Amino acid sequence: MTQVTEARKGNITKEVKIVAKKEKISPEKIRKMIAAGKIVIPKNINRETSPCGIGDGLKTKINANIGSSSKMENLPLEIEKAKTAVHYGADAVMDLSTGPNLNEFREKIIDEINAPIGTVPIYEAGVATQRRGEPITSMNEEDMFKVIENQAKEGIDFMTLHCGINRDLVNKLSNAKRTMGIVSRGGTFLASWILHNDKENPLYDNYEYILEIAYEYDITLSLGDGLRPGCLQDATDISQIQELVNLGTLVKKAQDASVQTMVEGPGHVPMNQIASNMQIQKTLCHGAPFYVLGPIVTDLAPGYDHITSAIGGAIAAQSGANFLCYVTPAEHLSIPNLEDVKEGVIASKIAAQAADVAKGLDSAWEKEKEMAIARKTFDWNKQFELAFDRDKCEKYRENYPVEEENMCSMCGEYCAIRIAKDDF
């Protein structure tokens, strides 16, 4: 049983009811959209968690990446990052660990985080290969699928699988004259494997087997964009679009197999190309939910990429993207700390809210109206309650106190709202 099979039978699951209540829309509307493949609810049958809906007509959702690396592994800190991300509004968390104790960390995050959890299984397969003293290009095909099945049994809710890269695309890539080649870690693992073994991508070649696993545990497939652009010069090139065409075919197969599916999108895209990228994906991928990293709109702001990605994310979500993967200030520089995680989530929340307002979602406009009334009436507690970062707001107010409640230290007694409150 999957959410799709139940939806196509006309059944409204408990997860659909929960999502409908959160979104303030009818369960029947969500059921129909799940049946059509335009909404997913990532929730493994082996795990109880607070479900969220991702797709058209719903609020834009946020994902936060956390996890250890081979150069830095602090499991308690990574758990704290995940909790921080959820506290500040992340709807889902992805574990991208490649450290020595990645399996232990995955078990802990599944137990401690009450939100959908995603992974990239090819990372574990690659790490296991290197632990044996072999290069990643020596990954065993059976090991790749064993990792996918084991993580499904553990309770992982959605998985990034780079099924769209095939031999044809890899062979053409050398002639593509890309500035940065492949920047996707999972994409590189598989593209290099294809070249060194002169064989087809096992995830592409055995896609039907992946669908069987996904169906059994109701895993939501997040079809990875292994050839996403890693700089503005490579955006919307032939390689990216050709992989997207492959992904569209794979989405259709998954939808026919009653498997929940979403598609991952580009990372570095000029602002003027974002809307067209969203429209192309929705057309080629049969309306499947679109999950984008950023997009980052300029490559000149290391240390501030939470801002460059929020700009791109707002445009992307307004234009059709449904799921924003946060980018932290540490992107391209280092593993993020707790403050980086917080800033990354809040920047993405700003982008999502701005897009939802632009799309006319009632729930987004209700909050905007509440904030306007709170500001008009000098209701500071309500303003702090609605703010994405209450602590920061309260700290500013405490650091610059004033004698009266109906003013702040910016304008004081010359506050426009205070002066004209009885006139307009």
From TrEMBL:
<keyword id="KW-0408">Iron</keyword>
<keyword id="KW-0479">Metal-binding</keyword>
<dbReference type="InterPro" id="IPR038521">
    <property type="entry name" value="ThiC/Bza_core_dom"/>
</dbReference>
<dbReference type="InterPro" id="IPR037509">
    <property type="entry name" value="ThiC"/>
</dbReference>
<dbReference type="GO" id="GO:0016830">
    <property type="term" value="F:carbon-carbon lyase activity"/>
</dbReference>
<keyword id="KW-0004">4Fe-4S</keyword>
<dbReference type="GO" id="GO:0051539">
    <property type="term" value="F:4 iron, 4 sulfur cluster binding"/>
</dbReference>
<keyword id="KW-0456">Lyase</keyword>
<comment type="function">
    <text>Catalyzes the synthesis of the hydroxymethylpyrimidine phosphate (HMP-P) moiety of thiamine from aminoimidazole ribotide (AIR) in a radical S-adenosyl-L-methionine (SAM)-dependent reaction.</text>
</comment>
<keyword id="KW-0862">Zinc</keyword>
<dbReference type="GO" id="GO:0046872">
    <property type="term" value="F:metal ion binding"/>
</dbReference>
<keyword id="KW-0949">S-adenosyl-L-methionine</keyword>
<dbReference type="GO" id="GO:0009228">
    <property type="term" value="P:thiamine biosynthetic process"/>
</dbReference>
<dbReference type="Pfam" id="PF01964">
    <property type="entry name" value="ThiC_Rad_SAM"/>
</dbReference>
<keyword id="KW-0784">Thiamine biosynthesis</keyword>
<dbReference type="InterPro" id="IPR002817">
    <property type="entry name" value="ThiC/BzaA/B"/>
</dbReference>
<keyword id="KW-0411">Iron-sulfur</keyword>
<protein>
    <submittedName>
        <fullName>5-hydroxybenzimidazole synthase</fullName>
        <ecNumber>4.1.99.-</ecNumber>
    </submittedName>
</protein>
